[in-house]
Amino acid sequence: MIKVKTTRFGDIEIDEKDVITLPSGIIGFPELKQYVLLDHDQDSPFKWLQSLDDGAIAFVMINPMLFKPDYLVEVNEAEVGDLDIETEEDAVVSVIITMPSDPQKMTANLKAPVIFNLKNRKGRQVILNNSEYTTRHNIMEEMRKHSANTEQQTLQNVIDQAREQKAEPHVGKVEKK
Amino acid sequence: MLVLTRKVGEGISIGDDIKIVVMQIKGKQVRLGIKASPSTVVHREEVYQRIQDENRQASTTDVVSVEQAAEIFGETDKQNTASPLKKVTRVARKPDPKKS
Does the distance separating the beta carbons of B78 and A45 come in below 8 Å? Predict the structure, then answer.
């Protein structure tokens, strides 16, 4: 067991098998390599990436798919080679949250997600080339955008269905292509 | 810092496997070609800097604000476990001094 004094969670005891290693650290914190992922609480979508080397440093993480289901992380072997990811199922992608005083304005860093290999418990923060992604995506806005899209799609489906149904009697028994 | 003067078409070598070539100079802009082994990650400095700044700010988040944020999040779909990860092969970036 490893004992760590943290500023947020007090003294915590970590099982060695739960330690996550980021060989290159988080960008800006190259000297901090050992972390542990803590659940904020069971129902919360957030997790804490707590540094074991510096108890004052912890990052709030979230699964980006929760607010941006079309998020795509394209990486090449060079960027994640040291994680030894064999299959994509072993990999978990998380993004870091920046929390201003008004939580409605919380943002996620989609430009630089953190990729973890669940098997060997290694992780790495990568930088994506996709210029669509920035370091500050407003999460609430992304969620609204997404739900608006889904609504629009549903509406479109209804319209399409109505059209089809309307067309049907005219088509009669003629075979559709 | 080592400072070197180079002309268009000239380059520098860093170690055994990194080469940087000046491709074009146009007013205040310089176009550089970078040839490095696939394991070398190359990024524009300001992008790197921005991520560093963002991470520094993110590292100071307190517990209370995360609790508030979790409330806002409320009943969002926590079941979406699809992975956004896609491995791609590196796009070759060969400096070609003839082409601008």
Answer: yes
ipTM score of the complex? Answer: 0.81
User: Residue B41 to residues A91, B46, B58, B98: CA-CA distances in angstroms?
Assistant: 20, 15, 23, 25
pLDDT value at residue A163: 66
Alpha carbon distances (Å) from B82 to A14, A44, A64, A71, A87? 29, 18, 10, 10, 14
Contacts of A98 in chain B (CB under 8 A): 54, 57-58, 61
The set of residues, in sequence order, having a beta carbon less than 8 Å from that of A100 and lying 6+ positions away, is A106, A107
Q: What share of chain B is helix, strand, coil (3-state, %, to 5)?
A: 25, 25, 50
Give the residue among A7, A58, A35, A45 at the shortest CA–CA distance from B67. A45
Q: Are strands A107-108 and A137-138 parallel, antiparallel or unpaired?
A: antiparallel
Threshold 0.95, pTM exceeds: no
Question: Whole-angstrom Cα distance, residue B50 to residue B69?
Answer: 24
Cβ(A51)–Cβ(A34) under 8 Å? yes
In angstroms, rounded to a whole number, what is the distance separating the alpha carbons of residues B9 and B55?
38
- Which residue carries 């180079």 as its tokens? B6
What are B98's two structure tokens?
Answer: 């003839």
Q: Which one of A72, A85, A135 would you mutate to disrupt binding with B, by most B Cβ within 10 Å of its Cβ?
A: A135
